[in-house]
Design brief:
The N and C termini lie far apart (about 75 Å). The protein has a domain at about 25-65. About 60% of the residues lie in helices and about 0% in strands. It contains four helices and no strands. By secondary structure, it is mainly α. The chain has helices spanning about 5-15, 25-40, 45-65, 85-95.
Length: about 100
């Protein structure tokens, strides 16, 4: 076993023994209490279940190809001024002193 693998193994073992405090927002805590009252699982089971669902959804979202963005188009008709001559078009829009 390499030193890096041993280090990872030790860290994973330590994580199993560590306890931490999670402070839930009031609305989340109320929903957890409601869900526990409906089922027979423990708070730990319910939190783990919901975290697994949320993490799986995030993995699916990350794996999904991005949706294409499209801009709606419409026919605005013919231009009121010629845009073939850019200098003339700018002069028309900004006046003779546009430089």
């Amino acid at each position: 076993m390499t030193a890096e693998v041993a280090h990872i193994s030790i860290r994973l073992g330590m994580l199993q023994c560590v306890r931490t405090t999670i402070v839930f927002d009031p609305d989340v805590a109320a929903e957890l209490v409601r869900r526990r009252a409906e089922g027979s699982g423990t708070l730990r089971d319910e939190v783990n279940h919901l975290l697994r669902l949320g993490l799986a959804r995030e993995r699916e979202r990350a794996a999904a190809p991005p949706s294409r963005f499209s801009t709606p188009t419409f026919d605005s008709g013919r231009p009121l001024i010629s845009v073939d001559d850019v200098e003339a078009a700018i002069e028309h829009a900004e006046g003779e002193d546009h430089r």
